[in-house]
Amino acid sequence: MSIRTVATTPFGDQKPGTSGLRKKVAVFQTAKYLENFVQAVFDTIVVPAGATLTLGGDGRYLNREAIQVILRMAAANGFAKVLVGQGGILSTPAASCVIRKYATFGGLILSASHNPGGPEGDFGIKYNTANGGPAPEKTTDAIFARSKALTRYRIVDAPDIDLDRLGTQAVDGMVVEVIDPVADYAELMESLFDFSAIRDLFAGGFAICFDAMHAVTGPYAKEILERRLGARAGSVINGVPLEDFGEGHPDPNLTYAHQLVEIMYQTNDANPAPDLGAASDGDGDRNMILGRGFFVTPSDSLAVIAANATLAPGYAKGIAGIARSMPTSAAADRVAQKLGVPCYETPTGWKFFGNLMDAGQVTLCGEESFGTGSDHVREKDGLWAVLFWLNILASRRQPVEQILEAHWAAFGRNVYSRHDHEALPTDVANGIMDQVRGAFATLPGKTFGNYTVKVCDDFSYTDPIDGSVSTGQGLRIIFADGSRIVFRLSGTGTEGATLRLYLEAFEADPSRQRGDAQLLLADLIAIADEISGLRARSGRERPTVIT
Ligand code: G1P
Ligand code: ZN
Fold it and tell me: 25 and 119: one domain?
């Protein structure tokens, strides 16, 4: 082997956030930036002899180049083999599936998730451990500490491999196997869901529109929905992954997936909207679910999936429990209560679910940020959620809207919305958070119209499995009837600070459950502004994104 040890100096800013290290492409293009971080990962995880690494990304700009560098560094750092997705492609849930199926020593996933790509966009890299899930905080902290201390990285001199040719090649003695990025994942999905019932559903004329947003799920959705399940050709739109996502913002929400929203809300009788609309994000772990002219909040989607879980063969025996992130609505809690299973409230970020799933405490997990998943992998999974909905629809044969109305009538409705204030100056965002924190002492017992504050706190979490404590996870104002206002600063933005305001009002009365969430939440929105001074401090009249 021709291992070279290259002298380097730390960058000091390579702190992996909730979803790995994310920076502008230009930063990753700085000489040695990627190499430093990858070496910090390899130094921290201590690669055992004979280890295999899983490697792939969402296909964004820099993906292919980064993969070639990582392959050369993996060879120099003692890996015996790397499984890499063809074309450098692996969706995040597919990477998790491959890590678990082939018991590899974790994986490196190249993605900045839903952030825009292209030369002006973002790039990212994340290490997942051998259970297939994101590295825990103690590992990411150790990686960060290492990145601030390292003085060299290791790399071999070897030519690029052909990423498009399936099969085995070598990088200076290390085996590289280029694998079909879809096959293992599709096989796992077939083992969980009733594909024959879903095929019947499509054969009966059911129509779906799946918007892959020119990101990684295009090939997955075409193979599974169109080829294996028989959805009509063209059901998958924007299905070709592009390095810049077609200049779009690959985040499946009502703002960025506007093409899908227009299709699902069209009222032209000659060309009716499909029965189900769905979208996924850059790396395939998020999902949005729409009925005809109807939006399903991710919090409700988790609750509906939980309430109907036994309809899917992979979950026919019932679920062990549910976990949701703190800002996610309590709709799932109500289902868990009825099923007699535990519901855990964790900080934001999928990694907090891993321990609970590994310990067999929960089967289903969800975040309000369009993340839903289960213990089949250790990541949230966009296409899995869509297939779960298809399985439910194939079994219940009701429109999406009716399923939701029946759910609310049975459990009550947790009316929900999130308001994002993106790219605020950091001091403005901190000022708003300080004002809310400052009000905590005087809020309990205070009444605003119909709402009386019960408690407020800065959410902290003690992991029930390993006892680790996470503090400062969001400012909660909880009202007597269970309604909530939560203020939280994003940990994934790359520009200024993003402040998220989460609003939730509980409505038990079926005659008042229908209707637009923004109208139903108007009082809480005003209360949030009164407490935080958000509009005055930010100088902005409205949020950047409302979901
Ligand atoms: C956002 C979401 C969070 C999700 C994360 C990664 O993080 O809010 O639920 O886990 O992206 O997809 P945030 O920017 O809020 O820190
Ligand atoms: Zn993502």
Answer: yes
Q: Is the minimum distance from the CB of 349 to ligand 1 under 6 angstroms?
A: yes
| Beta carbons within 8 Å of 185's beta carbon, 6+ residues apart | 91, 93, 94, 97, 98, 220, 383
Query: What is residue 16's DSSP assignment?
Result: -
Q: Which range marks the domain in which residue 148 is found?
A: 3-181
395 in catalytic set: no
Contact, 137 vs 39, CB < 8 A? no
With a threshold of 0.70, does the pTM exceed it? yes
The response to whether residue 325 sits with its C-beta less than 6 Å from ligand 1 reads yes
Lowest mean pLDDT among 45-59, 234-248, 348-362, 489-503: 489-503
Q: Which of 15, 21, 286, 367 to mutate to test the pocket of ligand 1 (most atoms within 8 A of CB)?
A: 367
For residues 518 and 383, membership in a common domain is answered with no
Residues 496 and 391 in one domain: no
What pLDDT, on a 0 to 100 scale, did the predictor assign at position 78?
96
Give the per-residue pLDDT at 224. Answer: 98
CB 372 within 8 A of CB 155: no
Is 395 in the same domain as 436? no
Q: Average pLDDT, stretch 439-466? A: 95
Rounded to the nearest angstrom, the distance between the alpha carbon of 527 and the centre of ligand 2 is 32
Which ligand is closest in space to the CA of residue 352? 1
| Residue partners of 210: CB distance under 8 A and separation at least 6 | 217, 221, 225, 231, 235, 236, 237, 277, 278, 279, 280, 386
Q: What is the pLDDT of residue 143?
A: 97
> What is the mean pLDDT of the segment spanning 106-115?
95
Same domain flag for 420 and 379: no
CA of 286 to the centre of ligand 2 (A): 5
In this structure, the residue with its CA closest to atom 11 of ligand 1 is 492
Q: Has residue 236 got a pLDDT over 90? A: yes
Q: How far is the CA of 546 from the centre of ligand 2 (A)?
A: 18
